[in-house]
Specification:
Elements lengths: L3 E3 L16 E8 L4 H15 L7 E2 L2 E4 L11 E9 L4 H14 L15 E7 L3 E3 L4 E2 L8 H10 L12 H6 L9 E4 L3
Antiparallel strand pairs: 1-7, 2-5, 2-6, 3-5, 4-5, 4-9, 7-8
């Protein structure tokens, strides 16, 4: 993988000259403990980091079956947000990891293990990124009902960098064996 994010032409960790406050799509997930409380705490922490929290968009919370998780894993609560952060993608990822650690997720964990909180960057405005630690847009975004369905509620007409298909169309054309999502909370 390369070590660059575009349209930023220099250091992806510091240069935001082309988009000083990108709007980040962030997926939230929790399947351990008080799932709704974990999502709410992560939401508050991200809002505190935003220069314009009033412009943030939040989907309802849905319950979904675990995907690619160990047998016996409990269902997830999932939601998606779009929030402005005056951060590079690398720094936004670090913020998400800090929030995960604050809410009890160990920094080293087995892939798809049960978790109090999981925050995944889905996109960062028009920025694309392909590094060892971060790919934007998220490479599996269009394959996951638990991401597409909440995202289609808040940004149905969004077209991701490198695509000509809207999020609503991606959801409509999704072939997935995931069971239907169950809406559990509109306000969180």
């Amino acid at each position: 993988m390369s070590s660059a994010c575009a349209p930023n032409s220099s250091d992806p960790a510091t240069d935001l000259a082309t988009d000083p406050t990108p709007r980040f799509g962030i997926a939230f997930g929790s399947n351990v403990g008080d799932r709704l409380a974990h999502l709410s705490l992560a939401k508050r922490r991200l809002l505190a980091a935003s220069p314009s929290p009033e412009s943030a968009l939040f989907s309802p919370v849905f319950e979904s079956a675990p995907v690619d998780c160990a047998a016996g894993s409990t269902p997830f609560f999932n939601a998606v947000a779009e929030i402005a952060l005056a951060l590079s993608p690398a720094r936004a990822l670090a913020l998400c990891h800090d929030i995960e650690a604050e809410l009890g997720r160990p920094p080293k964990h087995a892939r798809n293990s049960p978790r109090s909180i999981d925050l995944d960057l889905l996109y960062a405005g028009s920025i694309t990124c392909d590094t060892d630690s971060l790919q934007l847009p998220h490479p599996r975004l269009a394959q996951r009902r638990f991401v597409l369905e909440p995202l289609a509620i808040i940004r149905p007409k969004l077209t991701l960098p490198g695509s000509e298909t809207t999020v609503a169309d991606l959801l409509q054309n999704l072939f997935s064996e995931e069971p239907p999502l169950r809406r559990v909370a509109d306000q969180w």
